[in-house]
From TrEMBL:
Signal peptide residue numbers: none
Classification via Pfam families: TacA1
Matches recorded under SUPFAM superfamilies: Ribbon-helix-helix
Protein name as it appears in the record: DUF1778 domain-containing protein
Keyword set, alphabetical order: DNA-binding, Repressor, Toxin-antitoxin system, Transcription, Transcription regulation
Entry keyword Nucleus: no
InterPro entries per record: Ribbon_hlx_hlx, TacA_1-like
Family: Belongs to the TacA antitoxin family.
């Protein structure tokens, strides 16, 4: 069951098992990524899938606005950003890989 207060830490006591099948190349990539992060395959997979699950659920968060507040919200989203030197610098600085 989803528990928004639960942490994704591998140090927690685990009381359920999750079994999945994967293709050999998928497992190899997962193993390599886990090794890069100094984690076991299980730690890496649990933390990664837990984070993805949180992202999916947060992307579907609902908030309710009355008509006036919704119009104000849309106007803020549609408005031209205020002058911001840090944003200008970010957008005009070439990427390191360019």
């Amino acid at each position: 069951m989803y528990n928004p207060d639960a942490k994704g830490s591998v140090s927690q006591i685990r009381d359920v098992t999750i079994n999945i099948r994967a293709k050999q190349n998928q497992r190899d990539v997962i193993d390599h990524a886990a090794q890069v992060q100094g984690k076991s395959r299980s730690e890496f997979m649990l933390e990664s899938s837990y984070q993805k699950a949180q992202d999916v659920l947060l992307d579907r968060s609902f908030f309710e606005l009355d008509e006036l507040k919704f119009k104000q919200f849309v106007a803020l989203l549609d408005a031209t950003p205020m002058p911001n030197e840090k944003l200008r610098t970010l957008l005009t600085t070439p990427a390191p890989w360019d």
